[in-house]
Each structure stands twice: as C-alpha cells, then as structure tokens.
Amino acid sequence: MSLASKYNPKETETKWYNYWMENNYFHSTPNDKKPYTIVIPPPNVTGVLHMGHMLNNTIQDVLIRRARLKGFNACWVPGTDHASIATEAKVVAKLKEEGIEKKDLTREDFLKHAWDWTHKHGGIILEQLKKLGASCDWERTKFTMDETMNQSVTKVFIDLYNKGLIYRGYRMVNWDPSAKTTLSDEEVIYEEKPGNLYYVNYKIEGTNDVLTIATTRPETILGDSAICINPNDERFAHLRGKKAIVPIANRIIPIIEDEYVDVDFGTGCLKVTPAHDPNDKILGEKHQLEVIDIFNDDATLNSFGLHYQGKDRFVVRKEITKELENIGALLKVEPYMHKVGTSERTKVVIEPKISAQWFLKMEEIVKPALKAVLEDEEIKFFPKHYNNTYRHWLENIRDWNISRQLWWGHQIPAYFYGDGVNDFVVASSKEEAVKLASEKLGKEISVESISQDPDALDTWFSSWLWPISVFDGINNPDNEEIEYYYPTNDLVTAPDIIFFWVARMIFAGYEFRNEKPFSNVYFTGIVRDKKRRKMSKSLGNSPDPIELMNKYGADGVRVGMLLSSAAGNDLLFDEELCAQGRNFSNKIWNSFRLIKGWEVADIPQPKSAKIAIDWYKAKFQKVQKEVESSFDQYRISEALMNIYKLIWEDFSSWFLEMVKPTYQQPIDSETFNAVIELLENNLKVLHPFMPFISEEIWQNIEDRKPNEALIIAEYPKYTTVDETLVKEFSFTKEVISEIRAIRKDKNISFKEEIEVFVLNNENVSQKFDSIIEKMGNLSTFKTVSEKIDGALSFRVKSNEYFIPINVAIDVEEEKAKLLEELKYTEGFLISVQKKLSNERFVNNAPEQVIINERKKEADALAKIETLKASLSNL
Hints:
Rossmann fold, Isoleucyl-tRNA Synthetase, domain 2, seven-stranded mixed beta sheet, four-stranded antiparallel beta sheet
C-alpha cells in the first residue's frame, strides 16, 4: 500500500470517525467486564463549541479511550442541559423579532416555540464534539427535559417535600430584572465597582431640624419605611421617638433604634427599606415596619415611584439626584467603591426582592457530602486545594432557592386550590393533586378548581441528578444499568461550577442512592489568551475551535491544548501550540513512511540492532511507568509530554536511526518485526491523545479486521524497567553527540570512517559500543589505558575520548574551549550544591529528586577533575 507523502488530517478524521461509529465501538452495555463511566458535563442546549468545551471534552476523551484500551467496559454518556434562563431569553428574543410578545402567548404556545428552537439548535454542539473525536456513547444521548428526566425531577421534588426538606415561603431573594426570575446565591457574582455615596437630608416632623443619611441607592428612598439610629449613639439621643419626612414622597416614617446600625459608617444613621435590602428586611420584621416594593419585575419603578413610574432604576437614580439637589435635600455626593451583585447569566445588576419562592433545606443534606470529600476521601479532588473552596461553601451554605419565574424548564409539581400561603398540595399529576386537596379539605373539589404553580425549577435541580438520572436510577432505582455503571469513575469539569453542579451532585448521590456519584473530580483550568484574559466572544480573543481543527487537524489541536493544561491551572492558549501538535503528527507520519520504505530480507540481525531494540523496550517501559503515575495524579499534560518526547526523540530521532539499514540495503526481518511491534505499542499509548493519526497508521501497518482496530486494541502491559540499560544509553547519546559535533566542527565528512579511543575512567559498559560505531561511522572504537597525545579529544563525565586525525590542533583554541567548559561545569556544580545545602529543599523534595541532584553533583565533580587534568596536559 503506497503512503501519501504528506499526512492529510481532514480525510483521515472523517474516515476513521465514521468507521468507529459504523462498528459501534463507542457503545456500551453491561457485561462481565469492569465498567469505567464518565458522564459529560451537559453543555447548554443553545450552545456552540468554545475553547473551554474543547479542553474539557478532550480530557474526557483521553480518559475514556485509555480505559477502553485497558480492557474496561468504557461508557461516556453525552447530553445537553435545557438551560432555563439562557434558552428562554433566546426564544423570547426570537419571538420579539417576529413581533410576538411572550405575555401574549399561553404557556403551551410558548413551550412549542421553545421546543422548536431546541430541536433546531440543540444538536449543534454535540455534532461539533464528534469533529474533535469525542468517543461518546451517542446512543445514550440525554437531554435534561427528556420525559424520563422530567419524571425523575418530579419524583425527587415530591420525595424531598414529603421529607420536610422543601418548603415554600416569603423570603428576600436575588431578582434578575432582565430574565425576570429569582436566582440562587451561587448565581450572583459580587464585584467591586465604583459608585457614589449620596448624603440626603430628611426633615424631622414638627421641627426645623434635619437628619442626614448616606445611601448608594437614592432611588430607593421612595420605599423607605423608617430611619434607624443606634441607641448608644448620643449624637441622636434627641431624635428618639420622633418621626422623619421622606424627601419627594413626603411620607412620615418613624425613627427607630437598633444596635445593628454601624455608628462609624456614613452619618451613623440608616434608612430602612425592607423590600429592597436583606438586612433592612430583618430590621423591618423586628420592628414591624411597612414593606413598600417600588419596583416592577423589570426594575422599572411602579406606582410607589410617583412621577418616576415606568422609568428604569438607573435613569431614576440620575433624575432623583437632580430633584433632591433642586429641593435642597442633597447635601453632597462622594465617590465610593462597593460590592455590586450581578446575574451570572445575564450580567445585569440584581435586585433584592421579597417573593414567595420554593426552597430546599441544606443543613442536613450537606453533611454526608462534607464527610465524603474531607474526612473519608471517598471522593478526591484534583488539584486537592479545591477541598478548601468546597469546605468553605458547604460550611456557610444557605437554603437553596429552587424556583424560577420561567416557563422553559421543569414545572413545579405543586397545585394551588386557594389563596392562602399553605393552600397547595404537591403531586405528580393534576388528578393526584385533586385527590390530595380533597382529602386535605375534607370535601370533593373539581379539577377546574386547582391550578399548577406556573414557576419552573432551577436548571441545576435537574442536572444535580445527572449521574443517576442518565441511567434512570431515580425512576427505577434497581435497574441493571444503574447497578452496573453507578457510581461513575471520573468527573471532568471547570472549577467555576464546583458549587452549582459538583457539590450538588454529591448531595444528590448520598441523598437518593446513599453513595458517592463519582470517585474523582478533575478540575480543568480556564482557557486564557497570552495576556491572561479569559477567552470570550465579547473580548474577541477566542478562536473558533472548528476553524482551528480545519487548520491544524483535530489531533493537532488536542495536543496543542493538552501540552499546557495542568490540572487546575489556567491554560495560556497560543495557536503556536496547535502548530506544534500538527508538526508532531507530521513527524509521526514521516517516521512511519521511513519504516514502510525499508526492504525486508531474511539476513542476520546486526548486534547494534539487537541492543537498540533492548534499549527501546526498556525506555518504553520507563516512560509507561511515568505515564501511569501521571494519570494516577491526573497530570494529563505531563503524561502527554512524556509520550511526546518518547516518540519524537527516543523513537523517531534515535531508535530508527540506530536500526536503519545501510543505504540501499535491506533490513533483517527480526529487527523489522521488532520495530513494528514497538511502533504498535507507541500507537497504543498515543491513541487516547491523538486518536485519528494513530488509527490511520495502525490500519496501514497491515490489513486489519474490525475486531483488530486500534480503538479496541490491548494496552501495552507494564513490565519491570531495566534502569541500567536506560542510564547507559543516556551516556552513549552524549558520546555520539560529541563525535558528531567534532565532525561538524572540523568539517569531517559523515561518510568518512574515523577512529575513536576511550580512556574509560567511568567503567562504562561496552554494550552500546556497536551503536557508537554505527552512529558515529567509526572504523575503530577501542578502550586505551592512557591519553593519546596530539589527538582531538572530548569528555563525557570523567571519560576522555580521542580522535587521532590529521587536523592541526590550535592549542590556544583548545585551551579556551576547555576553560569555557570548566567554567560552565563549575557554575552548574555551585547551583546543584546550593540546592543540596538548602535544608527546606532537602527535607521537602521527594527522595528520587534528592538522589538525582546528588548524582548531578558527583558527575560534575568527576568532569571538573577530568577537565583540569586535560588543561594541565596542554
């Protein structure tokens, strides 16, 4: 079979992905093998592939392909999330373009539009993942609004409600005026932003006195219910029991006393607006103050806003400041930095709002999750420092606000039959609700007399069940699949959803199955540009992943991303990394073309080829051991780098050169077969990282049957490493490199055979002498007992090598070179000894690191002694 001179990733990727799909290699069903399971962090159904998805899903694919090769029954479950807020916003915007307002539609009509949108856009990101090479079990694709998923959510809600863990109540919540829904605490991002502190004078009723308060939100004075002073603040003792007049509104409000007031903030007085501040709400309840909500759902002012009714809150802030100034009520305005809460989804400033909402009690549900991660270590985080983030959140968690004022999502299974706060029942259907309500009332009621809560559940209330619900473990808790695949093995996710998703899945695992949902959580870093900015569409600094794959090949992009993505550390993305990945593909391809171009004959095996094969087998085992260790610690980038160096340097640059037959001569069959076997092992360890080119070469080595495809081949078995052989060849490489450097420096043709003699002070084994002879093109390579005067020489550690050739030796030039080498080696020795004299380094570094440093010290000392001896002989 003739091979193309240049590797073509576009043709290769399409061909082999189709082949894998046609042969159903990605699909898993329970069997007698040990399972290895990953569930995908479901991307938003409205989403398209971005660089974060690329990194996350490449890592998952590496893990699942490696597990498949290692003989596990590998199952990677894909799917998408319905993303209530984001999807509803897109559907509303689309309808608006068509001249349709959401408020003019029934829920059923709106949901039809939402489903149309989902069916049109929902599969885009999953199709894009296929181009990346993602080997998901596509037959298992799930959507969080699927019927079985919806049933799971309903069942869980009812279960938690019946346990007394879900309740409905009027609470101060985070309100998103853009999405017009409440948000959980985790969906609010607090940022330091510049603002102003407005000093406003309130007249005291029946006097000419005024009281000055400081506020960051002057528009909210229209909702003031009181002014509060600290009872211990003697500055305001004369105001006790008196009343103040709200500017503009001219309402009379009480002056109350409470130690909550910070006497050192602002003016020492506090305006109390119970409807628009969580702390003011507490004061309002304590002092039984009036609650005046001045905002509509979109944060425009309502009728309590007087002549500002219908205007946006930030417009009112500017206008009311002018009015306060005009009526003499504004004393001054000062710049002020303060924390402002914004919606994680829509980015608008949130409003505190009192509203009837559904909550899940968290106090008890978090306890098994804390224990699992922090005490028992049933679940391990990589990197481990995320344990502290997790602990802090769980130990300070508040009840989870699970209701959203949206139509797209899982509708809350609660049914109202009256106007009272407790006039509801929780049921799986309207028919069941009628039955429960009738029992509660003690009389029969009609279906028409009840109505379901229009709100939907928080999106995360469905995705927290994901590892269970994808195997239908809520509806059918004893089914074969949940029993086989759960708990899952690894979760790969971004750290910014550790609270939204990771922690909540752990809560759900222990609450609904009394066991962990996964064993390990690998937190990827954030993909940033070279300026350390997070990649985003708005900044225009994020490349299109599809275009990158078209340019560099999927394998190239995978390598480019993984080479600099250590667990938990941000990836500073540079397109040059993808070019490096593409170059690696080309290097592998050209190496394969070299091998396939050799003529094979039944001739004796050279001694040099036999030792080269023994060495590479040992080197491969050493690298495989390091790769296994890297995977155990989820250092995926490190594992790839070890394989990269093995294939690029050790295999392609050294091993193939060592076994390559002489020009226009055949290679012996024994060596050739060994080379193919070692190449196949390379492809097996490379496949999880670069699936396409590895499968292409594998299939081109010989005609393969479908059951012989690389994707399902057997991973190389690890055997003991011959460390001596590996170490000895490292020395040999230095000798060969020095011989070649002298040839180049002295312009000695590589076709001309030369003699080399060695003063073997290091007692180096002669195993690799045949390799040195071949790769240095030597006619003689012998050990001598004393120096050879007048010969060119070089040193490797304390060994001296002599090349007696007819080249005039410039003594001063040679002396300068030796001095330069001596200076460098002495400097190197000082740096090593500095490390070894550092008590902290010696006490904390791994034992192997210390051993390596002491060896470096010994080698440097030996070389310095040899260099000094050479200098003294000049």
